[in-house]
């Protein structure tokens, strides 16, 4: 695997240089991402005594969580010192098939010795504003500060350039104060609860995950197009002191101007 820090995006206001990892296929992406999480967890526990991770929803991360639940990776992490949050949630009950929590519970959380109190579920079944306030309070309580620096945030990318539940044209993308908000998404005709750019920008590291040719054009727009976060909210995620990684399979990276030599890991 050859990694490079891509040149600063040709985006006027943004001089961030994400690290781009390109792997052959979805299976490699899942395995690479799972190893990435294990490595970050071990480092955070060793350096800071605990590892706080925010899981992504949608379909791409599920195989990552299943890989992470493999015995050798489970054994490599001190789960007592891990706290799990969610970057966003659909406003449905936790047992609903649409629930990001349900997906993560089935793929990972019920297979690891993580104390229940360390799972900070976004309460999809309650009033969205209450769920947002509750999640923000849990973060501030855990970190004992107003700007919690989550160790690792996993994020997916939607075909319209959204990430978490920061959808194009919504107020959540422009939020400048709150860490977690409730957002009605017209195109989905449903409520979501989501981390805001304020919280995402405070993270130590962000790992974007995307696979498949269907994401190639939006990824090119995000990484090599002009900076227009209202249209492409993923561009808005720019951790000030943190690092941004993009993990793509060959198909999702296919639209990028400079292609990386594809070397197996
Ligand atoms: C969600 C996710 C969302 C997701 C993207 C990509 O709740 O759906 O938070 O941001 O990551 O829509 O989804 P896929 O991985 O299924 O393409």
Tell me the distance between the termini: 4 Å
Give the averaged pLDDT, no decimals. Answer: 92
Q: Bin the helical content.
A: 25-40%
Number of self-contained structural domains: 1
CATH topology: Rossmann fold
Q: Measured on Cα atoms, how large is the radius of gyration?
A: 17 Å
Explain how this protein is built:
This protein has 265 residues and is an alpha/beta fold. The chain has one domain (2-256): Rossmann fold, CATH 3.40.50. It is built from eight helices and ten strands. The chain has helices at 26-48, 61-68, 71-76, 100-107, 128-143, 171-174, 197-200, 216-224; strands at 4-5, 19-23, 51-55, 82-86, 88-90, 152-156, 180-185, 190-195, 205-210, 243-249. The chain has a seven-stranded mixed beta sheet, with helices on one face. Strands 5-8-7 form a three-stranded antiparallel beta sheet. Helix 1 (26-48) packs across helix 2 (61-68). It is globular, with a radius of gyration of 17 Å. The protein starts with a strand and ends in a 16-residue tail after the last strand. The relative contact order is 0.19. Bound molecules: 6-phosphogluconic acid. 6-phosphogluconic acid is lined by residues 56-60, 88, 90, 100, 156-158, 162-165.
Q: Which SSEs are present, and which pair or pack?
A:
Blueprint: E1 4-5, E2 19-23, H1 26-48, E3 51-55, H2 61-68, H3 71-76, E4 82-86, E5 88-90, H4 100-107, H5 128-143, E6 152-156, H6 171-174, E7 180-185, E8 190-195, H7 197-200, E9 205-210, H8 216-224, E10 243-249
Parallel strand pairs: 2-10, 3-4, 3-6, 6-9, 9-10
Antiparallel strand pairs: 1-2, 5-8, 7-8
Helix pairs in contact: 1-2
Bound molecules: 6-phosphogluconic acid (6PG).
């Amino acid at each position: 695997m050859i990694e490079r820090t891509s040149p600063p995006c040709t985006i006027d206001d943004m001089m961030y240089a994400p690290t781009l990892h390109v792997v052959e296929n979805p299976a490699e992406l899942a395995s690479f991402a799972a190893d990435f999480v294990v490595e970050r967890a071990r480092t955070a526990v060793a350096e800071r005594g605990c590892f706080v991770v925010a899981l992504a929803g949608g379909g791409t991360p599920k195989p990552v969580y299943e890989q992470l639940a493999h015995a050798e990776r489970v054994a490599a992490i001190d789960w007592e010192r891990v706290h799990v949050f969610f970057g966003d949630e659909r406003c449905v009950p936790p047992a609903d098939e649409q629930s990001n929590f349900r997906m993560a519970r089935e793929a990972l959380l019920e297979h690891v010795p993580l104390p229940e109190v360390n799972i900070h579920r976004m309460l999809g079944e309650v009033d969205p504003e209450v769920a947002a306030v509750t999640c923000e309070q849990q973060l501030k309580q855990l970190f004992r500060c107003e700007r919690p620096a989550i160790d690792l945030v996993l994020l997916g990318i939607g075909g319209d350039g959204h990430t978490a539940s920061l959808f194009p044209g919504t107020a959540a993308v422009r939020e400048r104060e709150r860490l977690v908000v409730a957002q009605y998404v017209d195109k989905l005709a449903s409520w979501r609860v989501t981390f805001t750019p304020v919280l995402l920008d405070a993270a130590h590291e962000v790992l974007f995950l995307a696979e498949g040719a269907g994401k190639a054009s939006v990824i090119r727009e995000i990484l090599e197009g002009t900076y227009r976060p209202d249209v492409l909210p993923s561009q808005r995620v720019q951790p000030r002191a943190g690092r941004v990684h993009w993990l793509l399979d060959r198909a999702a990276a296919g639209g990028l101007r400079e292609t990386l030599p594809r070397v197996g890991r």
